[in-house]
Each structure stands twice: as structure tokens, then as C-alpha cells.
Protein 1
Amino acid sequence: MHPAPYGGIRAIDLATGETLWDRALGSARRNGPFGIPSMLPFTIGTPNNGGPVVTAGGLIFIAATTDNLIRAIDIETGETLWEDVLPAGGQSTPMVYEQGGRQYLVMIAGGHHFMETPIGDHVIAWTLPQRE
């Protein structure tokens, strides 16, 4: 359980209802005294607004935190396998699609006024590594 206002992410086995893992989501990099970002990579759990997308290969992509990061999380372990800095807040749900045998991740980074993340109008796409 994450006390308010901290945010987290949890994986639940839908067949049994058992919690597989539960952890804080969001770093302190954009938080600090007097509104000055600390840029410290400590995982504290931040407010979240936006959903995840899960791939058939077991990756969770999520960018809902106020630290402006998009993450790939292993669905089995909860470990962050990859992250990238967004040019604006990622308070939206990523999309994954396949074209010509390649998988792509697309994110709208538009920001969120109330959550005080930078505002933007960015559409960003990444190519996922090919599976062997």
C-alpha cells in the first residue's frame, strides 16, 4: 500500500487475485524545495494520470508519472527495463502496434496543467527490438 499522495503500480494474477508485485512508480527528479526540480533519480512514487499498455511479450509501458519519464516494466518481476525522458508530461496511455513485422511504441506527450508537468504537443515513436 502506498500512502497518499504517492503513486504505485501493481501486478495482479487475474486467475487467483494474488498480488504478484507492488511498487512505487515515479521518481523525485522533478520534485524539490520551492518548486526547484532536484533531478535526483530516487523512486518515491508520484501522482499518476494515464494508463499502461501491456505487450504480448510481457512488457508494461507507462508514462503517467509527474517525472516526465516513459518506462518499460517487466510484467513478471516489476523491474524497470528501460526508460526515456519525454519533452512534456506523459499523462496519456501509450500505444503499441505492429507493421511489417516490427513493433512500435507511440506516446503523446502533451503535459497536464493541474499535475504541473510541462505542456507540449509531441508525438513520439520508438521501434522495439526485434524478437529472435
Protein 2
Amino acid sequence: MDFLAVHNLLLREPNLLLPLLELSNMRKEDSDSYQVKALRSHESLDISDKGKLIHVVKGHLLQQVNNLSKKKQTINAIWMENDFIFHNVFQSTHYEYIALDYVELEIYDANVVLQELSKQPFFPDLLIDVLKRQESQFYQYSHMLTKDAQERVIDIVKLLSTKEEDGYHMPKTLNYLLLSKCCQISPHTAKKAMQELELANKIICKEGEKILIYNADY
């Protein structure tokens, strides 16, 4: 692949990895190196410790850390449509992945993908692109934790809701327990923050649907 071809790929959305995978010679019929999986809301992804590349085709995938000693579960990343997750590739992790809503995934054997893509002259740029996205995801999430409870709730509601002309339409799956895990606060605190937003008319109920309205402050 010459420079101009790669340059055109760089201008494509949503990222460089997706079009390169589409143009690669990977054998998707090989179930050992590629599979498609659909998850229902709140269903967890059953995945081995072997290095995998997970492509979120549709929906939101929550990355969860389970602290068995404290019997505590917290979310430390929320992966969106067309995100790629390198699971146990660069370091060993113990993450669990939970579907927020209906989720469609493509799961690749990471070694097969990296071997295939390493043949491309701009392979280092691809890795830099992916790692920057991963760092951005973790930074965005850790930065949210510097805010107070109500600001955290607003950030998560905006992230996981559907943006329309009148505001952010919240999915029914976005309950107090989920908010508490995503915001790393207690369910009681999450409920209180939501009630305060409703009392301030920042969250309204319209035709049985909760909507976070637009506001210049956030």
C-alpha cells in the first residue's frame, strides 16, 4: 500500500484501524481468529484471557473492574460504537465487559490482526492512533472523577443518551445502580443527584421519557 492510499485512509472516519481491517487479507471465515457476537442489555461478554481485539460495531460496552474482596464493581471505561479494545494484548487485565444496551461486536485474535497489519508500511502510525484513543478514553473517565456527584451524573447521562433537538434522551437502562457504577458513587448519591437535577428542571419527563435539557452551563 503506497503513501497516498494510506493518506486517504487517514482522512476516513471513524479511525484508521477499521478501513485497514476491511482491506486486509484476514480470513473471517476462520472461527478461531474471528467471530461476531451480539449481547442483550446487561449481558456480559464471555471472553478468554488470550489476546483479543474487540470492535464495538453497535451499542455501548461497559468495562468493569470486579473487586472480589470488597464485593464491589466499578466501571472504568465506556466503549462506544466503532471503538477498538485491545484485551490482554499489551498487558494482562481482569476486566469484564457488560452490554449497556443491545450490542454487536466483532472479536478478532489480536496476534492474527497484528501480524496481518504489520505488513503495512504505516503500522506504527496505526498503533499510535489506537493507543492515543485508549489513553483519551481513560483520561476522559479519570477526569470525570475529579468532579462532584451531580457533574459526574450529567457527564454519564450525556455520554449514554441519544442527543436530539430538545436535549439528551435517556435510555430506560440508565438506572441509579448503573449510574452509581459509572460515576463511582453510591446508588443513594446517584438518586439524590438525579432528584436535584429534576427539581432544578434540568431533567424533565416528556411522554414517559426522561430528558436532560440543554444548558449553557454544561
